[in-house]
Design brief:
Number of helices of chain A: 4
Largest sheet of chain A: 3 strands, mixed
CATH class of chain A: Mainly Alpha
Shape of chain A: globular
Number of domains of chain A: 1
Distance between the termini of chain A: 39 Å
Number of strands of chain A: 5
Helix content of chain A: 25-40%
Bound molecules: zinc ion
CATH superfamily of chain A: Winged helix-like DNA-binding domain superfamily/Winged helix DNA-binding domain
Oligomer: homodimer
Strand order of the largest sheet of chain A: 4-3-5
Strand content of chain A: 15-25%
DNA sequence: TAACGCTGTGTAATAATATAACATATTTAA
DNA sequence: TTAAATATGTTATATTATTACACAGCGTTA
């Protein structure tokens, strides 16, 4: 369900920037970078980020307040994200693990709660940093 | 490994407050509540929170920037947390599911990364809010 | 004892993250 | 072709979190 063609100007500018980075970007660093393209205010950035998160083009790394592009162009799991985060170099990688996804998708607690979404962040040391 | 007896005055005040609430509290709401006890500045709160998180007495709900007490007094999993969050009433519950914990503890990605910690947040609607 | 490292405290200032409110424009759908 | 929904630009402000500095208490150890 490709939707990029329906993005607005600001959304495209900001998505382009995030997609060019393989690591998460913070809102105010995005703002700094897009000022030359006429985006002047935090709110313009946050609005675009909100939309891009909503349609699954990017994800928010909650523990870092940063945003990373979803590399899976057919991402069906915009609402079911798993990341690995190196606590030393801060390298972030999105994990797509079928078995894990299944397990999480099927998880039922004992409260009868219905889950529509989850976010999982693993922390540790990457190979370079061990 | 009970460590509460070694907590300092500020840490105790703040832990008490958080433990009395069954729902997550935000740092500045904590600050407001403990002003009558002589804690005047954000940093005093954040320092106590940091320590309490570190020793597993409380957990941070990353998506909400809020802090909740760990109800499991023998919590071995201060670094392996799972929460369910109702997106309507914002009710938060810590989940202790043995099978899920095992699955997450044993998870290995294909990058050879060594995980020491994870945080999982499920979102949905609780029974009241469905 | 004295020197040191470690942890915590108190205070002031500031940084970083995010939203409210308002006026207007554009797109979409009935 | 009106109405609803979505997006924009701008200003101001709210919320969350840290830096920097001076000092106090405690245990180790020289
Ligand atoms: Zn993705
Ligand atoms: Zn690393
Ligand atoms: Zn816990
Ligand atoms: Zn609810």
């Amino acid at each position: 369900m490709q939707k990029q063609e329906t993005l607005t100007k600001n959304q495209k500018i900001i998505l382009d920037l995030i997609e060019k980075s393989d690591q998460p970007l913070k809102a105010y660093s995005i703002l700094f970078d897009v000022k030359k393209k006429g985006i002047n205010a935090p709110l313009q950035v946050y609005r675009a980020l909100k939309k891009l998160v909503k349609i699954g083009k990017i994800h928010k790394i909650e523990s870092r307040n940063a945003f990373i592009a979803c590399k899976n162009s057919k991402c069906q799991i915009a609402k079911a994200t798993v990341f690995s985060i190196c606590e030393s170099c801060e390298d972030v990688t999105e994990i797509h693990d079928h078995k894990l996804s299944e397990h999480l998708r099927d998880f039922k607690d004992n409260k009868g709660m219905k889950y529509s979404k989850y976010n999982l962040e693993f922390f540790g040391l990457c190979k370079k940093c061990v």
